[in-house]
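Figure 2 data, in text form.
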Amino acid sequence: MKILIIGSKGFIGSHCVDYFSNKGFEVWEADVNASQKEKFYKIERKNSDFSVAFKENKFDVCINASGSAHVGFSFENPSLDFELNVVNVQKILVAIRDYNSNCKFINFSSAAVYGNPKVLPISESTDCKPLSPYGFHKLQSELLLTEYHKFFGLNTCSLRVFSAYGPGLKKQLFWDLYQKAAQNNAVSLFGTGNETRDFIFIDDLLEIIKLIIDKSPFTGSIYNVASNTETTIAQAANVFIKEFSPQKKLVFNGETKIGDPNNWVADISKISEMGFQKTVGIEEGIKKYAKWVKELK
C-alpha cells in the first residue's frame, strides 16, 4: 500500500512515517522542511502546491498532518492560521480530485471544534461551538472534506484529535512544564488545575489511524481520537513534575487562557466499535515523555 504523509517532519507526521514504514507501507513524505530522502516532496511555505505529488504517483492513502496546531497562534495570526488549516486542505482536495480520485484522504481536525460542551462525554454529534479561530478553521476544514465527498465522490475522513502527546512533541502542556521546570523552582500554569483533558498517547493514536484506514467508509466521516479518560491538568502536571524534577513546586495562577476549554472527555464509541483499545495509560505515557525530555541535549 502506498501512502503520502503531508507534514512528515512534524510531531504526528514523523511518527506516522515510522509507524507505516514499519508496517510495510510504501511511504512518501511531503513537508515545508527539506529532506534528502528520495521519496519526498518539498512544499513551499507560501503559495503551496500539492498537485505534483498526485500527478507523479497514485497513492492509496494520504494523511495530512500539516498545518498550525496552536490556539494562541490563531489569535495572533488568524489569516495565516486560515491558510494553513483551511486553504491548504482545499488545495490538497483539489489535487486528489484532479489526479488521484481513489485516494483515501485523512485530515487532522481537533477537539477544539467543540469548545465548552454542556454534556460529557463529547460525541461526534455534539454541537460545535469553537472558542478560537483555530477551532473555527478546523471546523471549516471538516466541511471541505464533507463537500468534496458529497460533490466529487472523494474518500474523506476527519479526525478530531483531543490531547495527543508523546516523545517528539515540543509544544503544549508537557513541553511547557519541561521548559519551566528546567529553569525555575516554581512552575506556574494557567487555570486552577481542575480543568480536564482527554490525553491520548501517540502510539494509541497511530493504531487508531490504521483502524480507520482499514475500516472507515470514508464518506466525509468524523471520528473522535482520544482515550475516553478524563484527567485534570493538576493530575497530569504532578505526574510529570514528580518524574522529571520532583523538587520543583507546581503553582496554578487561576487565570483563564483565551481559547482554552474547561472540561473535555471524549465518547470514543465509533473507534471502539472498530476494535480500538487503549494500551498506554496517562502515567505510563507521561513517564515515557519525561524520559524523552531528560535525554534531550
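Caption note: The domain at 2-168+200-228+266-279 is CATH 3.40.50.720 (Rossmann fold).
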